[in-house]
Write a structure and sequence with these properties.
The complex is a heterodimer of chains A (115) and B (116). Chain A is mostly beta strands and 115 residues long. Helix content of chain A is 0%, strand content 49%. In chain A, strands 2, 4, 5, 6, 9, 10 and 11 form a seven-stranded mixed β-sheet that branches. Chain B is 0% helix and 51% strand. The chains are: A mainly beta (115), B mainly beta (116).
Chain lengths: 115, 116
Amino acid sequence: DTGVSQNPRHKITKRGQNVTFRCDPISEHNRLYWYRQTLGQGPEFLTYFQNEAQLEKSRLLSDRFSAERPKGSFSTLEIQRTEQGDSAMYLCASSSTGIAGNTIYFGEGSWLTVV
Amino acid sequence: QQQVKQSPQSLIVQKGGISIINCAYENTAFDYFPWYQQFPGKGPALLIAIRPDVSEKKEGRFTISFNKSAKQFSLHIMDSQPGDSATYFCAASAFYSGGGADGLTFGKGTHLIIQP
């Protein structure tokens, strides 16, 4: 039984470049979340999918950020024209609906450093 | 504005002691309150969670106490061990009352050190 998988785990990019992160949720989890975490802070919610539909987007998700989950399985988070302020850990999480509630499982995160 | 306030920022406890971390929330629609543990370089891992229909939940050495009227909840770690040294985050969501759409709102975290 595999957990939430994210890659790449680390990415260093120059300011202005585009980066893309991939997330593979726990199989059969229909909900997928993206969070951002900076040093010394708690994770901040970015966006959420139920199956392939993007149902909620945080105000933190600027126009340079786009997330997709084309077939309701894996998801990608793309950041265009990266800025130094985008440096953070990007966390993917997944959960399933049901009477068991909303246990959200996180991946190990993808670290982004913009230089 | 949805907020979860967590205290203390850092905590040092002797091995075998009780670690207590507190959180307070504002949004009365919150109805799901998990605690996560995070080690350096890793993603957060769910420890224990509670819904507001109970005042306490215990799992092993970890206990959540919940005070709905005060809008506060806390994590107690009994018999704290050096392996418990990590950052702990409280969180909240309106999962049940919000139709399941909301993500988690996290506190800023407590850096816990258990001294041997």
